[in-house]
Amino acid sequence: MSGAPHVRAATGDDVAAIAALEDENLGADAWSEGLVREGVTGGLPTVRYLVAEQAGVVVGHAAASIVADIAELQRIAVTPACRRTGLARALLTEVVRLATAEGADRLLLEVREDNAGARGFYAAAGFDEIARRRRYYRDGATAVVLGLPLGPTDGSAV
Q: What residues does the N-acetyltransferase domain cover (predicted)?
């Protein structure tokens, strides 16, 4: 897909596209369209959804929960055809900006222990391992908990 990516806050019009990305990227661990709709439309007040568009098509999304001084990246996904193009990085940068603007001083996330690509992506963005959660995923896989201290509002932490 051509055209520069654009990251923006998700709207109700994006719910179906986000749910489709959930299914495409997360399979059995995907969130339902109803849960996505609740988060996007404000039913979950701590949750922020972002989408990445290219040529007017939603090709990625991120969901983060921001409560007081802690932000948690709950989801980040990019359609396979658009991976390794900087979209996930753009989404992560915007999550960091939002979290910092809302007063969070750290960003946490869980990633599958066996997902070397994602772990490398987060390591390159400055995340460090802080814990492990055994049998966290439906298939029994371990989650690695990563953390990123958030700095000044200029977004330089990512």
A: 5-151
